């Protein structure tokens, strides 16, 4: 933890744009807990997108806990939501990418929980796009088995409207990727993806659009997409990345608007009532 803080501190002095807002998301023990089915029943009918009901046990197994207000970890996501929305509203930003230096920091888990948390706020609608074309996990973690996905859109077998899924949570839609895509960096820099992103931005301009991306280091995917998004949230797994990996990531993000850093898997004291 200290090492990450130190690296973040050093990186911050090199990059004044960094807003050092740190939200700690508690470890496995804290994110487990009973899901309430009632929360999932609350679906609304979408004109075009398919409604796929979620299974509470699958969500819990995959640490998708933002619906479960009796789970203390959901507070962390609500607090993250407040900070993210505040900054986005101040700047009129609508699109946000979730990145990390190296794999397995918890980007997909954070993306989904953040999307759910934002959708629960009055007057906020959210779309979550799985642009980790190497290791797509959004559909898996939500337990969504949709027939059409970004894969079909890319191959020309589906239109955008056929790919959008509503997971039975009001004001939340998902653009899932069902299987890995070869040459993902090239695909992400292609005209087709650029058109898709601008169509999403234009057609759904009132929505917050969250992009779940692959890690920053060693693969180009995130870097080719970042120029198209308004801002970036960095997820670091507590103790998972070296100082040099964090600094290199900050360097790669020097042209991006960095919203802040989520320290995931943090070992923190149990929270008192307040
Ligand atoms: N706070 C946490 N405590 C314990 N385990 C966690 C936590 N957050 C995520 N995990 C687990 O870590 C694994 C990786 O999480 P996730 O898939 O969200 O990471 P990622 O950064 O998206 O990975 P990748 O770079 O491969 O896309 C999953 O098994 C997830 O359940
Ligand atoms: Mg992921």
Q: Specify the CATH class.
A: Alpha Beta
Global structural class: alpha/beta
CATH third-level topology: Rossmann fold
Overall domain count = 1
The mean pLDDT is 84
The succession of helices and strands, N to C, reads HEHHEHHEHEHHHEEHHEHEHE
Written overview of the protein:
It is a single chain. This protein has one domain: Rossmann fold (3-Layer(aba) Sandwich). The protein is of the alpha/beta class and 274 residues long. The protein is globular and about 50 Å long. Helix 13 links the parallel strand 8 and strand 9. 45% of the residues are buried. 39% of the residues lie in helices and 16% in strands. The C terminus is likely disordered. Helix 1 runs parallel beside helix 13 and helix 5 packs across helix 6. The strands form two sheets. Strands 1-9-8-3-7-4-6 form a seven-stranded parallel β-sheet. The protein has a two-stranded parallel ribbon with strand order 2-5. The structure holds adenosine-5'-triphosphate and magnesium ion. The site of adenosine-5'-triphosphate has 20 residues, from helix 2, helix 6 and strand 9.
